[in-house]
Amino acid sequence: MKVDLVGARWVKSSYSGNGGNCVEWAPGAHAGLVPVRDSKDPQGPALVFPASGFAAFVAAVKSGGFGDI
């Protein structure tokens, strides 16, 4: 499925500045979906995740579910 991200408001991760490995996400860009992109390549592709899956991923990261990465 192609999602129109023209006019999306991108927000940089609060972990930006950790050696240039930064991501941005566009909350509210499309109902039920969360687009994510590389902040160093804003014209490049975006990955689009179901909002529930993205929320589960963020919760797992916050709780240390992926170990020490």
Characterise the protein shown here.
The structure is a single chain. The protein is built from 1 helix and 4 strands, in the order ββββα. The chain has 69 residues and is α+β, with helices and mostly antiparallel strands. It has one helix spanning 51-62, and strands spanning 11-12, 23-25, 33-38, 46-50. The model has no long low-confidence stretch (mean pLDDT 86). It is 17% helix and 23% strand. Residues 8-62 form the DUF397 domain. This is DUF397 domain-containing protein.
Radius of gyration: 13 Å
- Poorly predicted runs: none
> How many helix segments?
1
Largest sheet: 4 strands, antiparallel
Run of helices and strands: EEEEH
Structural class: alpha+beta
**Major beta sheet, strand line-up:** 1-2-3-4
Backbone shape: globular
Q: Name the beta content range.
A: 15-25%
**How many domains make up the coordinates?**
1
Give the end-to-end Cα distance, rounded to a whole number of Å: 31 Å
Q: Quaternary status of these chains?
A: single chain
Helix content: 10-25%
- For the residues shown, what is the average pLDDT? 86
> How many β-strands, per DSSP?
4
Pfam families: DUF397 (PF04149)
Domain DUF397: 8-62
Organism: Kitasatospora phosalacinea
Protein name: DUF397 domain-containing protein
